[in-house]
Write a structure and sequence with these properties.
Elements (H helix, E strand, L loop, with lengths): L2 H14 L12 H10 L5 H14 L3 H5 L3 H8 L5 H19 L7 H4 L7 H11 L9 H10 L7 H11 L5 H14 L22
């Protein structure tokens, strides 16, 4: 797909989803990285239901690093894989305290070394938390980008690289949110609502 069409698609999506932004509630970068780590294979709504009490109990990395896993599990037991996620965010907090004075590093390579943090989480943190241009590829972004024809890739990493080439750098971060919103509200996995799609005329319809 040519860049002119890609930009036109993004323009249409911005009109359709003017409020497209990070849906995970957070007040700082520490809360953001924990929330994103918890959101794996879990809806943002579910994460937002458990994080207020979690962050009240553990407001920073220093507090979370000292937590007992069983206590953290009680706060997040309503989300998927809560035992593994409890262990991961505690270990993440311990690393932040030991290596970065309790602060979240503004560095991709440092982020992906943290427990429970992969490419998607690191890109979201750098984009949303630090305002850097990044494209985070989750299931929605992967599905929508390949379905509508912005790219045609087999995995998330290849999709991320393809989107970085296809989308102007100053639109990377916004494009991430727009594709997520479109994937949730219109171009869903099982039954996309093509009749009401704002970009139907430009879509390659790789369903």
């Amino acid at each position: 797909m040519d860049k002119k069409t890609v930009n036109s698609i993004l323009d249409k999506l911005e009109e359709a989803y003017p409020d497209a932004d990070c849906a995970l509630n957070h007040n700082n970068v520490f809360e953001l990285i924990v929330a994103v780590a918890l959101s794996a294979q879990t809806t943002d709504k579910s994460v937002n239901k458990v994080t207020p009490e979690l962050f009240k109990a553990y407001p920073d990395a220093n507090a979370l690093a000292k937590a007992e896993q069983s206590d953290v599990e009680e706060y997040i037991k309503k989300i998927g894989m809560y035992r593994t996620k409890s262990k991961n965010i505690i270990n993440m907090a311990k690393s932040l305290v030991a290596e970065y004075d309790g602060l979240v590093p503004q560095n991709f390579d440092a982020l992906i070394k943290l427990s429970g943090v992969g490419r998607k989480t690191a890109n979201v943190v750098l984009s949303v938390g630090f305002g850097e241009p990044h494209i985070a590829v989750d299931t929605h972004v992967f599905r929508v980008a390949n379905r509508i024809g912005i790219c045609k890739e087999k995995n998330e990493l290849a999709t991320e690289k393809a989107l970085m080439k296809a989308i102007p750098k100053d639109r990377w971060s916004k494009a991430h949110h727009l594709l997520i919103f479109h994937g949730r509200q219109c171009c869903n996995a099982r039954k996309p609502n093509c009749e009401e799609c704002p970009i139907e005329s430009m879509c390659k319809k790789r369903i």
